[in-house]
Amino acid sequence: MDTPKTASVVIIGGGVVGCSVAYHLARRGLRDVVVVERETVGSGTTSKAAGGIRVQFPIEAEIRFSLESIKVFERFSDEFGVDPGYKKIGYLFLISEPKHLPGFEERIALQRRLGADVRVITPDDARTLVPALRVNDLIAAVWGPGDGLAGPAEVTAGFARRARELGAKIVEGVRVTSIERAGGRVTGVTTSDGAIAAPRVVNAAGPSAARIARLAGVELPVHPRRRHIFFTEPFPAIPGPVPLTTDVSSGFYFRKELEQVLLSPGDVEDIGEDFDVSMDPGKVEDAVQKAVHRLPMIADARIAGGWAGLRPLTPDDHAIIGWSGVEGFFLAVGFGGHGFQHSPATGRYVSEWMLDGKPSMDLSPFDPRRFAK
Ligand SMILES: Cc1cc2nc3c(=O)[nH]c(=O)nc-3n(C[C@H](O)[C@H](O)[C@H](O)COP(=O)(O)OP(=O)(O)OC[C@H]3O[C@@H](n4cnc5c(N)ncnc54)[C@H](O)[C@@H]3O)c2cc1C
To answer: Which atom of ligand 1 approaches the CA of 333 most closely?
Structure first.
């Protein structure tokens, strides 16, 4: 597709966030929405996500984002014509240190008040859910049966498909190289395929968000941090489905993917501004060690492969959503390890904010100015 010369809104980044924003803007009737993606739709960090969807978040706004997004995943096939592979496998958090329990209890009270089904269970109950677990060092577990997973590629494709049908243009293989301003406001972008004049520009560039913000003179604390996921050869000794199970102390998590076991060491690694996210084979040992501690029988499994991706983290682990301070330049960034699951709600509230002047939900926890304060 030729790159348009004008747009009502340019969205930088065709990941799950940018495509959801494009869909919601187009659904509200906005014409000439253009998404500029330097590679292909969904090829950024969205392609590295584990697909997890949970209501177990610490603040009200995020819990509400989850509850709303889960409703969208439940009806996704009907609304988008794409099966997202949504399954309620549940999320299980394993707690071995007493210091971690009070925080969970506080959050569970909030989650339950907002309508989520989350409870503290005993280590033996946890072993009933996942018989392969070693539980003798656990003091409790937290179980969210309504949590689950879906396919990030399918969901992104669904948003992109409907956005296009509603008139949005998504150009691939085109890079934004600068953001143009005049009189303190955005006037468009320059790309590797020419200029696009536009009164509004959305930064949805995932791990590249800080770089993109700098093009408009905005400093953003969005830090790309590398995380690995490995997978075993088929391992029927742990039959699926298995809840997405996280060892709170080590950060290690696992779940079944068809016959294979997916496992992550839960690493948070600063690789600087290096956006090469090749896998570090040295991380396998870390993952296996943590896995064998929690799932002794996995010592018999063979690691078949793995990948690494960048999670765009902020200092407080909450996303940054709102106007940037430069007129016309909007931010939908810093989604860390939950940008995929919150993408349906993100798209809706960003579209409300841009079209109605304010969102219908209090998004102040995501205020871009909170770090300066
Ligand atoms: C290992 C791992 C596991 C994860 N697991 C989960 C999970 O279980 N659940 C969950 O919800 N989230 C998970 N995440 C987080 C999730 O992947 C991200 O939060 C989400 O994908 C962010 O989406 P995005 O659209 O903001 O970013 P991206 O998908 O990275 O999209 C941004 C796009 O911007 C494009 N871009 C950048 N610069 C330019 C430019 N100059 N011009 C044009 N285009 C540009 C990029 O090519 C990219 O496609 C995980 C992440 C990792 C790394």
So the answer is: 26
pTM higher than 0.85 for the full model?
yes
Distance 130 CA to ligand 1 centre (A): 30
Ordered structural domains, the chain, with CATH: 9-50+152-222+316-370 (3.50.50.60), 91-145+224-313 (3.30.9.10)
pLDDT higher than threshold 70 for residue 323: yes
- Ligand 1, closest atom to CA 310? 53
How far, in Å, CA of 332 to CA of 279, rounded? 27
* Cα–ligand 1 centroid distance for 364 (angstroms): 23
Residue pair 201/188 in contact by the 8 Å Cβ criterion: yes
Alpha carbon nearest to ligand 1 atom 9, residue: 52
In 280-299, which positions are buried (b, 16+ CB within 10 angstroms) versus exposed (e)?
eeebbebbbebbeebbeebe
Distances from the Cα of 267 to the Cα of 192, 230, 245, 311, 334, angstroms: 35, 12, 15, 11, 18
What pLDDT is attached to residue 307?
A: 95
Partners of 149 in the β-ladder: 52, 87
Question: Which pLDDT band, with edges at 50, 70 and 90, does 62 fall under?
Answer: very high
Q: Which DSSP string do the residues of 79-102 spell out, in sequence order?
A: HHSS----B---EEEEE-SGGGHH
pLDDT band at 372 (very low <50, low <70, confident <90, very high): confident
Cα–ligand 1 centroid distance for 159 (angstroms)? 15
∠ CA(370), CA(371), CA(373), 5° rounding?
Answer: 65
Ligand 1 neighbours (beta carbon < 6 A): 12-18, 36-39, 43-46, 48-52, 175-176, 204-208, 212, 227, 229, 309-311, 335-341
Would you say the C-alpha torsion 189, 190, 194, 197 has a positive or negative sign?
positive
Residue recorded with tokens 């253009």: 34
**Rounded to 5 degrees, what are φ and ψ at 91?**
-120, 135
